[in-house]
């Protein structure tokens, strides 16, 4: 095995293209008030999931296959009668990293007399790595290295499999072992350097920023009906107010590598709207969280205690502390599942009757229809408590989104949502509110229309609330441009 593996050094292609296509997972909407804050993240995550389905160019290192092996057509019986030829054919396929052909040939090779068991184990591990079964691949690579630590081709495969399984601390250890080799081919050195850069990139601060112009003709969510006639007279309700300003959204994240698949994450985000001509409706929210994260090739699980604050009208409005847990799981190349659970306590310094605990749950199912289309469906439920029962409610809802990648790098994204809020007590007008909230959004952008990473997007948002409480019935439409950038 050692001799066979050594012969492959000059033609190793490894998994270079595979580790560069790791896709971060995306999270479900955390809360009703903050749903729009995750819009930019969801756009990027959906688009990345689409691109993962598309064929990407593979880095190839050319190899000259012996002339006597080219154009040969032989049966399984012929191969079994010529075990030496079968072994040479296996080596040629390994040299090309032709996993598709190795799948077909390996069962035949294992039937041959005196076949190389270690080579067969190596091929099984390489096939498992190609299938996404990193646990088996990593275990087999390590078994081979335990028998012979000098098989640094196997160590390269192990390093790339560990990267794909997001065991970044272990990748560093394997790269350190690889650097001890004195005479590595240039292709190996380049591969090791690129793998090291990709690993360290996972340990840096990442930033996302979004900025847009806002023109809101009903910033105070004034009801559609302006007057209410009762036996005691006519009530005149507030008229819609307009406001002009900017919307903003920013996130910052950093992961630290711990043991195996475990890490520690720090995360912060802030979003809001600033109106220069109607500042009493300025709205800003931020949240900071930190906690352990477990990641693998297809799974990410986080447990994140957090602290959040909301300012409304440039004054402190609400303070939140709680715990959020998110699970993202890629079932296969087409299906993705995301779940989120969050619970906490809100306190309002000026409105103590709103103080209370809350709980939220979300389940999302994503499906890549084709390499250019992605569909997701989400179900949400939750409870918000308050000292005054008329401000406490249960809510449940559904969301659906569709992302389409058109020719010439044009992306279209549409979302629709429906939710029901059932309040728990009678309000001042002796009404127990039951609000139906409808929402829709449309986004259009061109991925190659950028300037130094700043990319513009065209957006249309629509929201309508229908309620048995006339004051809570309103609708609004916003058309705007925004600019986003990732660091």
Automatic annotation (TrEMBL):
Pfam families: SlipAM, TPR_Slam. It is a multi-pass membrane protein. The keyword Coiled coil does not apply. Gene3D superfamilies: Tetratricopeptide repeat domain (1.25.40.10). This is PF04575 family protein. GO terms for cellular component: cell outer membrane. It comes from Pasteurella bettyae CCUG 2042. InterPro entries: Slam_C, TPR-like_helical_dom_sf, TPR_Slam. The keyword 4Fe-4S does not apply.
């Amino acid at each position: 095995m050692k001799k066979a593996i050594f012969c492959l050094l000059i033609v190793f292609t490894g998994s270079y293209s595979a580790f560069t296509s790791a896709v971060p997972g995306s999270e479900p909407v955390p809360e009703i008030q903050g749903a729009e804050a995750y819009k930019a993240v969801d756009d990027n995550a959906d688009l990345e999931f689409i691109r993962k389905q598309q064929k990407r160019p593979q880095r190839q290192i050319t190899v000259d296959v012996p002339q006597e092996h080219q154009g040969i057509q032989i049966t399984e019986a012929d191969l079994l009668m010529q075990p030496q030829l079968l072994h040479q054919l296996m080596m040629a396929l390994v040299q090309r990293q032709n996993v598709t052909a190795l799948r077909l040939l390996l069962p035949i090779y294992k039937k041959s007399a005196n076949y190389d068991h270690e080579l067969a184990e190596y091929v099984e591990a390489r096939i498992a790595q190609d299938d996404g079964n990193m646990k088996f691949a990593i275990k087999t690579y390590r078994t081979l290295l335990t028998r012979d630590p000098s098989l640094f081709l196997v160590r390269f495969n192990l390093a790339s499999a560990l990267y794909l399984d997001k065991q970044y601390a272990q990748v560093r250890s394997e790269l350190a072992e690889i650097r001890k080799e004195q005479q590595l081919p240039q292709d190996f050195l380049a591969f090791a350097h690129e793998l090291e850069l990709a690993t360290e990139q996972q340990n840096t601060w990442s930033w996302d920023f979004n900025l847009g112009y806002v023109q809101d003709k009903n910033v105070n969510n004034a009801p559609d009906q302006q007057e209410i006639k009762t036996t005691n007279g006519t009530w005149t309700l507030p008229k819609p107010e307009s406001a002009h300003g900017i919307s903003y959204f920013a996130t910052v994240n950093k992961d630290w590598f711990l043991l195996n698949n475990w890490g520690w994450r720090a995360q912060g985000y802030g979003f809001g709207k600033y109106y220069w001509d109607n500042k009493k409706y300025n709205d800003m929210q931020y949240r900071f969280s930190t906690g352990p994260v477990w990641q693998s090739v297809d799974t990410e699980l986080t447990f994140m205690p957090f602290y959040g604050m909301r300012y409304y009208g440039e004054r402190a409005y609400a303070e939140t502390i709680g715990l959020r847990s998110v699970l993202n799981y890629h079932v296969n190349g087409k299906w993705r599942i995301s779940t989120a659970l969050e619970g906490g306590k809100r306190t309002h310094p000026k409105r103590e009757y709103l103080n209370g605990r809350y709980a939220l749950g979300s389940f999302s199912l994503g499906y890549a229809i084709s390499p250019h289309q992605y569909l997701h469906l989400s179900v949400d439920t939750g409870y918000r408590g308050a000292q005054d029962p008329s401000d406490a409610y249960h809510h449940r809802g559904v969301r659906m989104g569709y992302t389409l990648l058109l020719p010439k790098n044009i992306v279209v994204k549409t979302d629709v949502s429906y939710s029901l809020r059932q309040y728990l007590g009678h309000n001042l007008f002796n009404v127990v509110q039951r609000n139906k909230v409808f929402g829709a959004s449309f986004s259009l952008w061109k991925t190659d229309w950028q300037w130094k990473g700043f990319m513009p997007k065209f957006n249309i948002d629509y929201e309508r609330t229908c309620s048995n409480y006339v004051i809570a019935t309103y609708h609004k439409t916003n058309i705007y441009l925004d600019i986003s950038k990732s660091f």
